[in-house]
Amino acid sequence: MAGEKPLYWIASAKRDLLEFPEAVKDEMGTALSVAQFGGKHPSAKPWKGEGPGVLEVVQDYRGNTYRALYPVRSTAAVYVLHAFQKKSAAGIKTAQPDVALIAERLRTAREDYEARHGKGKR
To answer: What whole-number distance in Å separates Cα of residue 35 and Cα of residue 87?
Structure first.
């Protein structure tokens, strides 16, 4: 694995994750730590939302599902885009407002990454 990457939180992602039950926070924290060191936690999987390049960490706890999403293309940092309790009435599909929010935050993360680390470095 590579050296440790900084972890950046977009908008309310950290505050939202801190609202999760302790067991979920612990597991997601471990998964994000693995990402910081260049690895992929077993609970991280490709997000089936808008386009490739985003992983989601999914945790089920007491009948609820919690998710945290981060892009995988940047080599110098990990950006947590969104953390939420899935409440979609459409089965396993992510609710459209969450999809739109993730797309918006992904753009914000890309802009921040380019400002901090240069446009060509991924």
So the answer is: 26
End-to-end Cα distance, the chain: 17
**pLDDT (0 to 100) of residue 86:** 83
The ranges assigned to domains in the chain are: 7-117
CB atoms within 10 A of CB 58: 17
Which residues does residue 60 pair with via DSSP β-bridges, in sequence order?
65
Name the fold adopted by 7-117.
YaeB-like fold (3.30.2310)
Q: Which tens digit of pLDDT belongs to each residue from 28-80?
A: 999 999 999 999 999 999 998 766 789 999 999 999 999 999 998 777 899 99
